[in-house]
Structure formats: structure tokens, C-alpha cells
Amino acid sequence: MKKKRKKKNRPAQQKKQSIFSWIPRFPQLNLPSRTKRQIGAVLMFFIAVIVVLSFFDLAGMGGDFFLKTLSFLIGKTVFIIPLLFALGGLAFLSSRPKMFWLSICLGIFILILGISGILGGREISQNQELQKFIWNYSGQGGWIGYLISWPVFYLFGFWTNFIVFLTVIIIGSLILLQFLWQREKASEDGKPAESPADIQAGKSLVSQIFKKATGEPQFKIKEISPSEKEKAPPSSKEALSLGLEAKPLKRETDSFYPVPSLDLLESDKGGPTSGDIQANSTIIRRTLENFGIPVEMSEVNIGPTVTQYTFKPSEGIKLARITALSNDLALALAAHPIRIEAPIPGRSLVGIEIPNKVRAFVRLRNLIGDQNFQKSVSPLLLCLGRDVAGTSVYADLVKMPHLLVAGSTGSGKTICLNNLILSLLYRNSPQTLKLILVDPKRVEFETYTNLPHLLTPVIYDVQKTVNALRWLIKEMERRFEVLSEAETKNIALYNEKAMKKSLDPMPNIVLIIDELADLMAASTRDIEAAVVRLAQMARAVGIHLIVATQRPSVEVITGLIKANITSRITFQVASQVDSRTILDMAGAEKLLGLGDMLFISSELAKPRRIQAAFVSEKEVKRVAEWIESKTQLAKTKTEEITERDITEGLDEAIEFSEKESVYEQDPLYEEAKRVIIEARKASASLLQRRLRVGYARAARLIDMLEEKGVVGPADGAKPREILLGQPSQLDISDQSDLS
What we know:
The protein has about 750 residues and is an alpha/beta fold. Helices cover about 45% and strands about 10% of the residues. The strands form three sheets. Strands 9-8-16-15-14-10-13-12-11 form a nine-stranded mixed β-sheet. Strands 1-4-5-7-6 form a five-stranded mixed β-sheet, covered by helices on one side.
């Protein structure tokens, strides 16, 4: 049997040709809106000048004929025509990008009718003969003024006629003057008179003519520029009125925590340059059609980092065919790398994201000054940046409730962490928020050393980090007991009850770790167990984790950590394997770096591309020093948690120091230490034989010795390393900690 030949995919059904299709079509000259307005203004001023010259017999036969004709039609109203057309010319120059030819001409025509009607009605009231209709009338109001005023005067009288045409004059004035008001309003708001679409249209005039000639379908360009779309951020006084109120501290001092001024941060400057939009759209459409994929181009979103071109493929086209053409589209567009989002969440469109020629810096000040941030009721709202459409993006840490940040070196992780910290500082006082900052690299969080929000000074040591995590677990358990006694489910309900009883609220605690890989390399078991325990249970009691790492591998971001931290931010990574480790999908390897990131949470079905806000080290230092100077909270000890009695029910303060251990002392600890040092090897079986104890107690003693720094961590089948010297050099009777 003969095999049936597969039908080739036809790109599109051809339209039926008309009998006039042989007539050549010429491209339409599509001028920018600014040029059209200037031409309209010139024509208006030209008419005004011709009328003025005709008043003095300087316009020749044409001007004389023009003056006599207008005098017959509208009478003495002809002397106001130069003024009306001059206002029309100013309206053309002052109007918005769209052309309002019909509206401006209609306003002038209505004004002429109103004035002629008033003059005609006035002359009719003075001359009794004119109260009967006369076809060959030509007086003060002209033939048109007499024609429209005589019926009103005949039916209602002089005053009704006057009021009717005065109303007509007011309507015409409003129509004509609204364009001048638009210019004034634009200058007051600080918006440019010329829209970016007009500028782009002037730059790509040749490509638009080509598009008209080839029959390219029209699409909408959605221009987003932070400097144009966002209003100027409010000042510090305006911020106070928008909900960032100063919160008094009831304990230890009578001072208050004022909101940091927005003047400490820098605002957005400049805008993105996306290149020739029309030409890129044509290239995308033709490239896809060459591979048998007919598409219909849709809107274009110009963001701070990339420009998103959207299109709708024809029915029956598999999205896998489109995503497989990523390299071919990059070659045709001469842009790398490009990212294809198929489909765009919530829309039946496919998006192609192309890097801009010039990127726009997104600054934190404009995000904090936005109304969405100022009016939000969430105390832990975080500023993330702007998406591909230029929209401000925020995330609520309470709903996350934990966040994982990953990316290669230099991609923007530390700047992102500074953004998150400043977002929290602009919304919370030391009474409502406590921070624990862990900085194994020792250089990133040094600016926040004297911040009153810190529970403890910035932690640099691995062992102190382990102690801090264990203290957080105990604090979590204590808070659960407090909530149980208060019969509340979470910290929000507990704080509501506390405010009604005039009690101090239970503060939120946010632990921020700048580099998880260093901690996991030094103490994998303790760090992972503590992080997982907190991620599983700490949400209800107001304890949240923000963990960052530059090594997105399965040894650092383990399966348990990924399972319990579902909200993740990834910056540019080296390979697709790292992207799948963080997001469980590819895409992060095609990011552009310098704050370009993907954000995913339980509320998002697919990762959302965002340009993170940029904040400089000077801005961070200014805000930190401002808060330190305005608050009068001092710590009593440098290595001590100063506010252990934040809520009722906690009697003792836990101090982060090297002389404390979370484990209770075992009576056989000193004997086990002596045995290990004398034998110069450490194992649970050795302690079982020498001390005659069970395996569980021997393993617990080994863990305590590891915590104190007597022995090293386990390394597979290799024996543990003895970290202390010879037995003769030790004073075992000394009960001080040896760590």
C-alpha cells in the first residue's frame, strides 16, 4: 500500500485577491504626532494672519473676497476669528501626543456660532422689522447669526436667547482651552510633554513606512519607564501621612523610632533604550514563518532590562516548536541571550524577552515611595524590583514565609539582601522587628553593627551561628507555649490581644544568612537540621529565614531545605544544572546579571523575571547611621542579647558566647575528654569500651566533644581529628570551656 504523504504545514491561508489587486499601493507617510501638531499650529496661525491682513486691505482680491464672505455669514464676529485661530494654534502645540483636529475645529466653530447668535439676537431686539424672518439679512450677527437666533428669540424672547448662546460660548471655550490645561497639568506633574512612543516613532520612521507597504499588522507598544510612569516619591513628611507612622518605644526609653527619610536614598535616573521595535517585531514574525510557524504579533512591553515582544501562534502549533527556536531567533535578532516564556501566565500569548541596548537602573527609593508599599498593612513587605513590564514587584515575607536567594558571584545577591534589610527597616521599629545577621564572609553586614534592631552583633563565627540557630529553636518552642496559653493560633492574633490589653507586642525575628555554603561546609548536620526545623514550624510564631548562597549545589541546597523553603530568588548562574537545582527548571542561566533575577513562590505558577533594585554602599551606610543617630537604644554587653524579656513568660536571657553550650553537661564529659586525648583517636566504640556505657551515650559524648572543639567533624570512614595538644599540656581540672 502506498503511504499517504503528509501534508505540509501551510503558513497561513491566503486572502482572496480583489479585482483591483493589480493596482500598486504606495506606502503611507506616517509622521510623528509632534510633527502633525506643528503643522496644524502653522495652519491655524496662517488663517489668523490672512484674516488680519484682510482687515487692512493687504490680502489682495482673495482677502477681500474672504472678508466679505465672512462678514455676510457671521457679521462682526469676523473680528474675533484671528484670536480664536491663534488660540487653536496654541492648543495644537500644547495638546497630548494624539491629534485632536476635529475637537479643536469644533471648539472654534461653536465659539463663532455662540458669538454670532448673541449679536443676531441683540439686533433683532432693537429692530422690530427683523422679528419677521428675512432671507436676505446681513447685519451684526451675519446671516448665520440671524438664522440661528431668530427661532429662539421668536419663541422665548431676548434673555433666553442670550443665555442659550452664552452657554454655547462657554462650551466652545471649554473644548478649546482643555488642550492648554493639559499642558499645564503635565508640567505640574513633572511628566514630559512628548511621550516615548512619539520619540520612538520619529526614530523608526523608515521602518514604519516599510511596515505599511508590506501590510504588517498593527500592534500596541506599551512603553514603561520608571522615570515617567512613577510619580516622584513622597518626602519624609508625606511618608508619615501615608502610613509609616513613628512607633513609640514603651520600655527603656521615652524616645521614638522615626521613619528614615527617603532623601537618604537616590531616585531613578534615565530610561531604557530598546532599539528598533518595529524592525525586531518584523524579524521575529518572519523568522517564525520561515520555520512554518505563523504568528500574530501583539503588544510590546519595554522594561528596565529587557523588552518583551508578545505574539499569538496559530491554532495547532506546539509550544515546544517555538521554544526550540531560541538560538535561531537570537541569531536573527543579533541579541544574546534571549528568553522565551511560553505561555505568559494568565494570557494566551508567548513572550520573547530581548535585552535592551541601554539598561535602566531601578532604585530602592522609588519602590519604597510607591503607594503600594506605603499603604500596605504587612509589616514584612519586601521590595524586589520591577518586572519586564516595568511594574513594581513586592513580596510579603509573612506569606512566603522563608526565602532562599542563590546565584553566582557578582550577580547581585548581597545588594538584594541589602534591599530586603532596608525594606524591613523602613517599616518596622526595634520594638516590632528583631534581626539576626550572619556574615561568614565578614565584610557584607559590617555596616549594620550598631543597628538597634539587632538581637546580637553581626555573627561571623560558625559555632556562634549554630548557637544562634539552636537558640531560635528554643525561642520558637517558648513562643508556642505563650501562644497556647493565650489561646491564639499565630503571632498576629496574639499581638492584637496584646494591644487591647496595653501589652508590648511579640516582635518578628528575621534571620539573614549571607553565605550558607561556608556554614554547611563547616557543620553540615547541625546547620541543616536547625534550618529545616525552623522552616517547618517557625512561621506561626513570627520567625522567618532569608538564606543566600553563591554555590547552588545539592550539597548546600539539600532536598530538605528546598522542600521547606518554597519561595526562591535566583540570579544568573553558570549552567542549566544550577538553575534546575534552585528552581527545578531551566532559565536562570539565560539571565543578564547585575540584578536580573527570577522569583518563584507558592503564589506563582511560573518564575517571574524581575530587575532587582540597586542600592549603593553609601546609601546603606547613610540609612544605618541615620537610624543610629535618631534612636537611643544601647546594648549593655557586646556579646549579649539585650532584650530577652520582650514578651512575658521568659525569665532568663540566653547569651551568645563561647562559654555556653546548648547541651547539658554529662558527668562523664571530662573523663571522655581525657580518654580521647590520651588515646589520640575519637570514636564511639572507644568510649563504650573505656567508660562502659551504651552506644547512644557514647555518641552523645562525641557530639559534645565536637561542639567544644576537642575533636573534628566526621569525615566518612576516616578517623576524627584530635584538635587539642598533648595531654601534658592541658589542665583538665580547669572547668573553663576549651572551644
